[in-house]
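Supplementary Methods S3. Input chains for the assembly prediction are listed below.
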Amino acid sequence: MAKVYETVIGLEVHVELATKTKIFCACSTEFGGSPNSHTCPVCTGMPGSLPVLNKKVLEYAIAVGLATNCDITRYSKFDRKNYFYPDNPQNYQISQLYLPICRDGFVEIETENTSKKIRIHEIHMEEDAGKLIHDEWENCSLVDYNRSGVPLIEIVSEPDMSSAEEVITYLEKLRLIIQYLGASDCKLQEGSMRADVNLSVREVGAKEFGTRTEMKNLNSFKAIARAIEAERARQIELLEEGKEVIQETRRWDDNKEYSYAMRSKEDAMDYRYFPEPDLVPMMISEELLNDIKANQPELRTEKQKRYKEEFDIPEYDIDILTSSKHLADLFEETVAICKAPKKVSNWLMVETLRLMKEEEMEAEDLKFSAENLAKLISLTDEKAINSTVAKEVFQELFHHNIDPVVYVDEKGLRTVNDEGELRRVIEQIVNDNPKSVEDYLGGKEKAIGFLVGQTMKQMKGKANPDLINQFLKEELLKKA
Amino acid sequence: MKNIISDETMEYVGILAKLELSPEEKEHAKQDMGRMLDYIEKLNELDTTGVEPMSHVFPVVNVFREDVVCNTDKTEEILKNAPGVKNGMFKVPRTVE
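Predicted structure tokens for the full assembly:
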């Protein structure tokens, strides 16, 4: 009988914190500056420079720890992790090994079959490295230290997951918590959230873990799922052939759907960790802890509960709207302006989600503002534009965040409320289409649709459909 | 000398430190390192039962900075420290993991 294998997965998740400045210096963390424009002696590792911890980093790390049921380490410190690589100008990374800020937490996940707890081993604070570009032209490497010293937290889970589905559910849950806390935007594509997958397989029932590998370079949930499936298959194949899995770090290539070994345990690095002498320890007082607890923003379950009480919208809408912090913010801000929860929800649930899917976008990437969405809603409320035009305007709003009022006026899209003109057009249409008129009067009610269409076309889409229907029926009755 | 540094250890330390030493320099370094370890070993004579390991010598904790951008663009000055410059970046020998 064929052997049955189970997969054992643990994750190391790096999250870039949403601070204005770097972890140990007052350089900006803003994305997209020209190379090395956000650097100073500290984040370029100049001798004699002194790092000082950004308080916000500690607060965010503790906030994430509290939201993931961790114990907060009341006496915590930083350590040096020594390794040589040009993206790391000091030849060491300041990280935490011995006394990480958060320990022993968990996140509860619900998958289709079951709910389970994924335990968190620890969360520690550390600094990001610079960006290394390999220059083929001159056969050299070029370094931009703008990312060097950007604050990260690394969330290390226990090996409690057993499928790609569980891994993705866990990551989505983690992402949602962190986004709600405002601690990071957690964009996988842009690297503000990065997940390394530790995976091993073993025969069902085996007590010992199999040898694990670590997979890097996973930039999307789809890539993570594909990499997990491929690595599981690769390890099982090795075992079936009577070979051994080698403990190593592998790099996933999502285009080739294949991973290759980066470095194995034999040439694993010796990091020679020791306490960071330039940074004094952190003593987390009861006061600071209570402060952070008191300022913890509303998380998803609380928000869902409040929506149920405050807004008259279906539970299904609430689930979707709160599935992203940005979507929920957009909803609340728009409702605050236009006071029409169901209408706002409809725009977000139908057109927004449809266009997001079409563009393969995430809710966090939505560009339009609450003000402009509210303007669009009041235009339709006032019947200044009809629903077809509204959808067209929304497309522009979605892509370019245009001001709907300005846009509608510039393009001359306002519904023509000149009843005299509409009546003249309808009279003309009725006279020009005797066949349809005859059909309608002969009992084929559907024939009116054609006449409505012709009228709308003549009015260049800018007529009020209710008025067209009303006037058409009146005109047709005259012919009866 | 109590601490004898083996050739393997010397080799390994050289790799970690990215240093290439001549045979004479290696011999010299082995002697130096042995003497350093002997010197530090003096501490082992102390009875430290029940003493908390200490990581920092100053009785100071919680030195923080507010999250406010103070540093301005000093690209030009920073790049003066680079071994080479190309397109506003530090130019270094080709390094691929």
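The mean pLDDT of chain B is 90. Chain B touches chain A at residues 16, 18, 55-56, 58, 60-71, 73-75, 78-79, 81, 84, 86-97 (CB under 8 Å).
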